[in-house]
Design a protein that fits this description.
The protein is mostly helical. It is 69% helix and 0% strand. The chain has two domains: 185 residues, Tetracycline Repressor, domain 2 (Orthogonal Bundle); 153 residues, no CATH class. The chain contains 14 helices and no strands.
């Protein structure tokens, strides 16, 4: 059980960002794409667990002063540092194997996928896009690991840069998923990912201050908290939440011609998205949770908002594929063929 807790499997939920590109890009009909994307999801999940272990090893003393983190296996002394390092190395090896699945999947696409060739022509690239996609995914996973190592050893003590580094991890997940599915990411996708990830990180810092009874208490477990104030974090949480909604609203407006039946039905997804985001702000402000991941796995209201967004989006994408709104075509993410 302690080994499972050490891996933090709840954090694997963040790998859902790998799926955003393939889902919105309607890329599932291409040969090998399921294997390739599955490999990418696994690679990021396992690499994140390895990096969390390395972070726990470095922060063991600070974790022992935290009311919740002190129960982590390393901080509690239930798993030794040497054993933890060995598990981390094994996880990185498994992540490398998962990257191999990406190469296998894209090789299948390269061998005989007419649809992939159509996609390559649509996005203005040659057949080499298929061959390079696996290498791009591997580069994204590698960059993710390097980014986490830089965060653990340097960025986590620098205000704002610490949050940008965390947000970069989510952006790399999205880019890795897009590369695995041979789909080009659009600006709205990268903007939404960046701002949502920053919102989550600033929200975690604000919630942490509530849990620890203020800035001084929070600074004992996260040094960078001494550079923030409650007012600053509140402002940054609101700014990034608004930026996330505006970025997504811009996408909804830009896709009106693809989802209109009397009116732009994609607008309906804004309702549950807004509810979930604002509920997260409320609960983090009140100190109910000090980690958005905990909020996502425990709060029913937030989960219903996310579920509503997912269901409405899924139905609309399915109707799009069926040609209800317009003639379906191979997509570059956010850009349909005319």
């Amino acid at each position: 059980m302690d080994v499972v807790r050490l891996l933090r499997p709840k954090q694997w939920a963040k790998s859902v960002f790998v799926l955003i590109g393939p889902v919105y890009g309607l890329a599932w009909d291409k040969p090998g794409v399921v294997l390739s994307v599955t490999g990418a999801v696994g690679a990021f999940a396992l690499a994140s667990s390895a990096c969390y272990i390395l972070n726990d090893l470095r922060d063991v003393e600070a974790d022992r002063r935290h009311p919740r983190k002190r129960n982590r296996p390393i901080a509690a002394g239930r798993i030794s540092a040497g054993w933890a390092r060995g598990i981390s190395v094994a996880l990185l090896a498994l992540a490398t194997f998962c990257v191999g699945l990406v190469f296998a999947g894209t090789s299948a696409a390269e061998a005989g996928d007419t649809a992939a060739n159509t996609l390559n022509s649509a996005i203005g690239r040659g057949a080499e896009w298929t061959g390079w996609s696996a290498w791009l995914t591997a580069a994204c996973v590698t960059a993710y690991v390097l980014n986490v190592l830089l965060y653990t050893n340097l960025f986590k003590q620098r205000p704002v840069l610490d949050v940008l580094s965390l947000a970069a991890g989510f952006v790399l997940r999205v880019l890795g998923g897009c590369a695995a599915a041979m789909v080009e990411p659009s600006s709205w996708l990268l903007n939404c990912t960046l701002f949502i990830a920053m919102f989550l990180a600033f929200g975690k810092r604000l919630g942490e201050r509530r849990t620890m009874g203020g800035g001084e208490g929070a600074a004992t477990v996260r040094g960078v908290q001494s550079s923030y104030t409650d007012e600053t974090l509140r402002m940054l949480v609101v700014i990034t939440a608004v930026a996330s909604l505006l970025s997504y609203s811009d996408y909804v407006q830009g896709q009106a011609d693809k989802y209109t039946m009397g009116f732009n039905l994609l607008w309906l997804t804004l309702v549950p998205a807004t509810y979930a985001l604002l509920r997260a702000v409320l609960l983090l402000e009140r100190g109910v949770y000090d980690d958005p991941t905990e909020l996502a796995t425990r709060d029913r209201g937030f989960q219903l908002g996310v579920l509503g967004f997912g269901v409405v989006t899924g139905v609309l994408l399915l109707l799009r594929v069926q040609g209800v709104f317009s003639e379906p075509g191979v997509l570059s993410l956010g850009v349909g063929l005319n």
